[in-house]
From TrEMBL, chain A:
Signal peptide: none annotated. The keyword Transport does not apply. InterPro entries: FAD-dep_OxRdtase_2_FAD-bd, FAD/NAD-bd_sf, Fum_R/Succ_DH_flav-like_C_sf, Fum_Rdtase/Succ_DH_flav-like_C, SdhA/FrdA/AprA, Succ_DH/fumarate_Rdtase_cat_sf. Its cofactor is FAD. This is Fumarate reductase/succinate dehydrogenase flavoprotein subunit. Residues 489-594 form the Fumarate reductase/succinate dehydrogenase flavoprotein-like C-terminal domain. Keywords: FAD, Flavoprotein, Oxidoreductase. The keyword Flavoprotein applies. It holds the Pfam family FAD_binding_2. GO terms for molecular function: steroid dehydrogenase activity, acting on the CH-CH group of donors. Residues 12-431 form the FAD-dependent oxidoreductase 2 FAD-binding domain. The active site is at R324 (proton acceptor).
TrEMBL record, chain B:
The keyword Oxidoreductase applies. GO terms for biological process: respiratory electron transport chain; tricarboxylic acid cycle. This is Succinate dehydrogenase/fumarate reductase iron-sulfur subunit. Its cofactor is [4Fe-4S] cluster; [3Fe-4S] cluster; [2Fe-2S] cluster. Residues 5-92 form the 2Fe-2S ferredoxin-type domain. Belongs to the succinate dehydrogenase/fumarate reductase iron-sulfur protein family. Pathway: Carbohydrate metabolism; tricarboxylic acid cycle. One of its GO terms (cellular component) is plasma membrane. SUPFAM superfamilies: 2Fe-2S ferredoxin-like (SSF54292), alpha-helical ferredoxin (SSF46548). GO terms for molecular function: 2 iron, 2 sulfur cluster binding; 4 iron, 4 sulfur cluster binding; electron transfer activity; metal ion binding; oxidoreductase activity. The keyword tRNA-binding does not apply.
């Protein structure tokens, strides 16, 4: 038994995560009059959202007036290969413009069009220029804007209560390790301060998970140390379900050299602004990789592709801007065929496409990144790029309108939530997802609170349990060998990368699952030195449990889905199978998170008026015949 | 192309500490943060360091390398010779928490004291119109990644704890300039800059500009123009008269 000293706090809503989704949820909850806490593993303003580059998708129609929510909805469903939760895709497409404009009222300064409106750029899979952006640092603008909005709300609270933190408080560098329930409802959360190692308890009836993704389980990734799937694992252990975990997005363009920066992102904005992919023979190879479902929608010659940048009404877009899964697979094939670049990627050329000062103006941080980290001047040399683990489509299964999970009082928004993006997310659709569903999760929590008859309570034994589990890595095993958390982490990353990566097959995924069994066993003997004050080895030991559980979900779901679709490619089942389109793989676990299970369930059919937004001929590429009998194109036959 | 590099890393906490020697493998293309991570994985698992993006975008990994304030993730090993001993210490202006991690809460307090963006009341969602050239000035300042290297460097507070109370530092003086130059903001913070945030302490040495990893021209584009605005305001006859009247008015009541 440890001697536990636990600092206690009581809030109406606790938001876990200070990225775009968490901040937007907290703003909403506070504006609705609820006392709100924001808990984050890093400092305020440093969450992963800060790294987003290209932009935030919203059909404002500022650059091409033909754009509207219906076009955005169609693009999103196509990008996700029609496996998306269509209600989420609908809400997202409809509400994104207002959410972006709202950021302007908080002080955001997006790049402008000639007539002074928010400028919008092209991105993969988006029919029209749609991404609001600030150069290539859009995420920084969004996070800073919401951070500053929170400060302004705190200033209002100071005026009223004499205390900046009366209604809204940020707990920086604080990690949640357990959610606590009273019966089947949420009643609190247990945490430690990263700096002092001391424990905290939040007593709260409503929790919004906004913890982001899982990329740190893979070796080559654009994600930071924070992406250990904490929210995914917390949700599972609290009894919530995850969906779509087999769909992991490998961004086609990560840096490949030098080794220490391998995986760092090269924004899709490079291609949106004219950059093209080439192999070692100088060929623009993407023309050879337009899949059947997209035939007719993309340019077939270089001439047409180049003309498209200027005149989008009379030309089709370049296949360099196919959805990410297509481009990543194409790069993979080129490298395998021996047409790769010296360091195992392909070339991304913007130097020959735009004048140097234009490149520096539009892509300042890419210019900076290559110059400083790789000694490459992108205004005169091509970049070398290759796929990198970037985003997880899978996440907590939520009610589209309220963001509620199946556990009363537990909500989820942003990358940790599942459904919105189906099997593959379009670039730019995450930042907009954060603000649309961040707000909805805040509102969902508020209305849940308003309907609550009494506050759930926390039992002391749950608190003791949580504390014991948290300090376990300091107990060195009395027999057997102690394990180093860094070693286990490295082996996990290697295994997931090699065996459950961009191209999968049964034997390999099975091997990964065997490896996971071994790693889970060894993880029980993880032991760390030192004290509890800012001890990264200890922090990693606790994060490891989450990574192992979430990786098990990814691998098990990947094994079960015997088709290829979006962010899940099976070498042994290369085709897309209409029977699988409507099937969700749902993950759950036991209370301790020692074991994950996956079960299949059908998804709710799309509402008819939404289905009618698509041509029958397009739907036929994805749907089974029986599913389409109601479509007006068929009904007449 | 790997070699054994010599490092001195400051280890300790708010009560005591000192430099510790390490010999570590260094590989081609690596940055100082890679070396710190290798130390954690192989020799010092509890070595404390902050980082997030490893790409110069989040401003978490600020420290001093051979006495120079820098981002650990953007300092390439190739700028040093293989024989050189590289010394890594925490930011000096802020209290140490542990090893390379400092308590930067001063900055968050100062951020909270700057009056926020105040939107125009007559414009609804989607009605904002601003010219690109008009937003560019503030956009330059919004590139700030809040690494606080400029705050750490400015001599007004480096080694002058006593000035922290009345001086917000280049980062937040620049934040005031950013809001003042926002085409649609309706608040006036000019007097505040001087009276509440200590603009007067700045004697435009430009040390902040030199260390900014985002290459923001803090002094030339934010601080000097703010100083000019303050000066204009002081000598503007109408404002001057207004101030005098106000003073006299309040005086008369006694
Ligand atoms: C390099 C890069 C570029 C990208 N560019 C784009 C783009 O141009 N457009 C686009 O739409 N998308 C882009 N994305 C994707 C997008 O940025 C992310 O999906 C999105 O920012 C995730 O936001 P979030 O709010 O869900 O979580 P995050 O911003 O990741 O925030 C997660 C928060 O949860 C906290 N947290 C996690 N676990 C715990 C815990 N146990 N206890 C307490 N706190 C915890 C973290 O500290 C953090 O504050 C990009 C991603 C990367 C990596
Ligand atoms: S220019 Fe002013 S703010 Fe910048 S370092 Fe010098 S005195 Fe400090
Ligand atoms: S102005 Fe520059 S040095 Fe100062 S905090 Fe911002 S990015 Fe860092
Ligand atoms: S880790 Fe983000 S700036 Fe260095």
């Amino acid at each position: 038994m440890v001697q536990v000293q636990v600092e206690r706090f009581a809030y109406d809503v606790v938001v876990i995560g200070a990225g775009g989704a968490g901040l937007r949820a907290a703003i909403e909850a506070r504006q609705q009059g609820k006392r709100t806490a924001i808990v984050t593993k890093s400092l305020f303003g440093k969450a992963h959202t800060v790294m987003a580059e290209g932009g935030c998708a919203a059909s404002m129609g500022n650059v091409n007036a033909k754009d509207n929510w219906e076009v955005h909805f169609r693009d999103t469903m196509r990008g996700g290969k029609f496996l998306n939760n269509w209600r989420m895709a609908e809400l997202h497409a409809k509400e994104a413009p207002d959410r972006v404009w709202e950021l302007e009222t908080y002080g955001a300064l997006f790049d402008r069009t000639k007539d002074g409106r928010i400028s919008q750029r092209n991105f993969g899979g988006h029919t029209y220029p749609r991404l609001a952006h600030v150069g290539d640092r859009t995420g920084l603008e969004m996070i800073r804007t919401m951070q500053q909005k929170i400060v302004s709300l705190q200033q209002e609270d100071f005026e009223e209560h004499g205390d900046y933190e009366a209604m809204l408080k940020v707990f920086p560098e604080c990690t949640i390790t357990e959610l606590i329930k009273d019966g089947d409802r949420i009643s609190g959360a247990f945490a430690y301060w990263r700096d002092s190692g001391k424990f905290l308890l939040f007593e709260t009836p409503a929790i919004v998970l906004a913890t982001g993704g899982i990329g740190k389980s893979f070796k080559v990734t654009s994600n930071s140390w924070e992406y250990t799937g904490d929210g995914h694992a917390l949700a599972l252990r609290a009894g919530a379900t995850l969906i779509n975990m087999e769909f992991v997005q490998f961004h086609p363009t990560g840096m490949v050299w030098p080794p220490s920066v391998k995986g760092i992102l090269v924004t899709e904005g490079v291609r949106g602004d004219g950059g093209v992919l080439k192999n070692s023979t100088g060929e623009r190879f993407m023309f050879g990789y337009i899949p059947d479902v997209f035939k007719g929608q993309y340019a077939e010659t270089e001439k047409e592709a180049d003309a498209w940048y200027k005149d989008q009404d009379n030309n089709r877009r370049t296949p360099d801007l196919l959805p990410r899964d297509e481009v990543a697979r194409a790069i993979n094939s080129e490298v395998k065929a021996g047409r790769g670049s010296p360091h195992g990627g392909v070339f991304l050329d913007i130097a020959s496409r735009l004048p140097a000062d234009e490149i520096r103006r539009r892509l300042p941080s890419m210019y900076h990144q290559f110059k400083e980290l790789a000694d490459v001047d992108i205004t005169s040399q091509p970049m070398e790029v290759g796929p990198t683990c970037h985003y997880v489509m899978g996440g907590v299964e939520v009610d589209p309108d309220t963001a509620s999970s199946v556990v009363p009082g537990l909500f989820a928004a942003g990358e940790v939530a599942g459904g919105m993006h189906g099997s593959n997310r379009l670039g730019g659709n995450s930042l907009s997802d954060l603000i649309v569903f961040g707000r909805r999760a805040g509102l969902g929590a508020v209305s849940y609170l308003d309907g609550l008859a009494e506050r759930p309570t926390i039992s002391e034994s749950d608190v003791d349990d949580a504390a014991n589990r948290a300090v376990a890595p300091f107990d060195w095993p009395t027999e057997g060998q102690a394990e180093n958390p860094y070693t286990i982490h490295a082996e996990l990353q290697q295994s997931m990368n090699d065996l459950v990566g961009i191209i999968r097959k049964e034997e390999e995924v099975q091997q990964a699952l065997d490896k996971l069994v071994e790693l889970k066993e060894r993880a029980r003997f993880v032991a760390v030195e030192g004290r509890r004050e800012f001890n990264p080895g200890w922090h990693l030991s606790l994060d490891l449990r989450n990574m192992l559980l979430v990786s098990e979900c990814v691998a098990k779901a990947a094994l079960m889905r015997t088709e290829s679709r979006g962010g899940h490619t099976r070498d042994d089942f290369p085709g897309m199978d209409a029977q699988w389109r409507n099937t969700l793989l749902v993950c759950s676990s036991d209370e301790r998170g020692t074991h994950a299970e996956v079960a299949a369930k059908p998804q709710e059919p799309m509402r008819e008026d939404l289905l009618e937004l698509f041509e029958l001929s397009e739907l036929e590429k994805y749907y089974t015949d029986e599913e389409l009998t109601q479509h007006s194109g068929r009904a007449g036959q | 192309m790997s070699y054994k590099g010599n490092f001195k890393v400051w280890r300790g906490d708010d009560t005591s500490g000192g430099l510790e020697d390490f010999v570590v493998e260094v590989n081609e293309g690596e940055v100082v943060l890679d070396i710190i991570h290798r130390l954690q994985a192989t020799q010092a698992p509890d070595l404390a360091v902050r980082w997030n993006c490893k790409a110069g975008k989040c401003g978490s990994c600020s420290a001093e390398i051979n006495g120079m304030p820098r981002l650990l993730c953007m300092t390439r090993m190739s700028v040093f010779t293989e024989q050189e001993t590289i010394t890594v210490t925490p930011l000096r202006t802020f209290p140490v928490v542990r090893d390379l991690v400092t308590d930067v809460s001063y900055n968050y307090q100062k951020a909270r004291e700057v009056p926020s963006f105040t939107p125009p009341e007559n414009l609804g969602l989607g009605e904002y119109r601003m010219k690109q050239r008009d937003v560019e000035r503030s956009q330059e300042f919004r590139k700030c990644i809040e690494c606080f290297l400029c705050q750490n460097t400015c001599h007004v507070i480096r080694d002058h704890e006593e000035n922290k109370e009345s001086f917000s530092g280049p980062r937040f003086l620049m934040r005031i300039a950013e809001l003042e130059m926002h085409p649609l903001d309706t608040e006036d913070r000019t007097r505040d800059a001087q009276d509440e945030h200590g603009l007067g302490y700045c004697n435009i040495t430009k040390c902040c500009t030199e260390v900014c990893p985002e290459h923001i021209k803090i002094t030339d584009n934010a601080l000097i123009p703010m100083k000019e605005r303050v000066a204009d305001r002081k000598y503007d006859p109408i404002v001057w008269l207004g101030n005098q009247l106000f003073r006299r008015g309040s005086h008369n009541k006694h």
